[in-house]
Specification:
Elements lengths: L3 E2 L13 H10 L4 E4 L8 H11 L2 E12 L2 E8 L6 H27 L5 H8 L8 H10 L6 H9 L12 E2 H10 L3 E4 L9 H13 L4 E6 L4 H14 L2 E5 L31
Parallel strand pairs: 1-2, 2-3, 3-5, 6-7, 7-8
Antiparallel strand pairs: 3-4, 4-6
The protein binds adenosine monophosphate and manganese (II) ion (3 copies).
């Protein structure tokens, strides 16, 4: 089986490594097929493609789109997309634009808690990035010594229901899948094990995802334990979805799983990368 990793982040979004450094790390870890999937942006793909050619590995053009479904945030990875396709490019640009206002509201919420300077601090964290997100806020809180690690920054301030969390509407499920398909890509439901849903809601989610043209699901994910991997393998077989392998690597020392460190797919699944290799 090919050594693949179809989900990771560079400093274009909330990863720590620049695209070329990320690609070199993946190649050093033995990855043969890599997808760069920055949040809501494709600006790192050109640099990544060049680095992949140099390293002799295959790069799949990707993106991770932020979605609001019912009242939850979901993530959808698009793989094999054409980054300049207008519907996709415009859709992503609109999401990125919304992120700046959200970041201002988050900074204001922190200021009300007596934590000043988040605006400047996160802008510094996100230097070079084209989006600003909660990971940058978590790094800011850590750098300031307000929380001892990133996880507690989420647990105490940034997770839903916590004081610096700001409700925000992202793209619609159907529209995001539409952009990915218009750009020639495959829509992959990212880390389904991360969504806290009842089994009825989970069925509704997969039914709708398939109905609007979703074709794949992350079965092996850095966010999944063994049981979730088994559960979503079953879901993939049930719906006839292609299966993906995804570290969701953000940076050395920050992510539980290194880029290229994931095991292969369980038996009886069709790998999504068969579309690209
Ligand atoms: P955003 O899209 O700005 O809401 O940020 C979402 C990102 O925050 C995810 O892609 C992760 O990188 C990170 N994140 C979300 N929840 C957690 C958590 N509990 N612990 C660590 N990182 C998290
Ligand atoms: Mn992230
Ligand atoms: Mn995600
Ligand atoms: Mn991700």
């Amino acid at each position: 089986m090919l050594h693949v990793d179809l989900h990771c982040h560079s400093s274009v979004s909330d990863g720590l490594l620049e695209p070329a450094a990320l690609v070199r790390r993946a190649a050093a870890n033995g990855v043969q097929v890599l997808a760069l999937t920055d949040h809501d942006d494709t600006a790192g793909l050109a640099e990544a493609r060049e680095a992949a050619a140099e390293a002799g590995i295959r790069l799949v053009d990707g993106v991770e789109v932020s979605i609001t479904w019912e009242d939850m945030t979901l993530h959808m990875v698009g793989l094999g997309i054409c980054p300049t396709q207008p519907e996709l490019a415009q859709g992503l640009a609109a999401i990125r634009a919304g992120r700046w206002g959200r970041a201002q509201r988050m900074s204001a919420a922190l200021a009300r808690l007596g934590i000043d300077g988040a605006q400047e601090g996160t802008a510094r964290q996100a230097r070079g990035a084209s989006i600003i997100g909660r990971t940058h806020f978590a790094r800011f809180l850590l750098e300031r010594g307000i929380t001892p690690d990133m996880q507690s920054a989420f647990d105490r301030y940034l997770a839903r229901g916590k004081p610096a969390y700001v409700e925000h509407r992202w793209a619609e499920l159907a529209e995001a899948v539409g952009w990915i398909r218009a750009a020639g890509g495959v829509a992959v439901l990212a880390h389904p094990g991360r969504y806290r849903v009842s089994s009825a809601m989970r069925k509704r989610l997969f039914d709708q995802f398939v109905a609007v043209g979703g074709e794949a699901v992350e079965v092996v994910s850095g966010a999944h334990g063994r049981n979730q991997q088994r559960d979503f393998a079953r879901v993939a077989r049930h719906y006839g979805l292609l299966a993906s392998v995804a570290s969701d690597f953000h940076g050395p020392g920050e992510s539980a799983r290194d880029v290229g460190s994931m095991p292969g797919l369980p038996d009886g699944l069709t790998p999504v990368w068969e579309r690209f290799v």
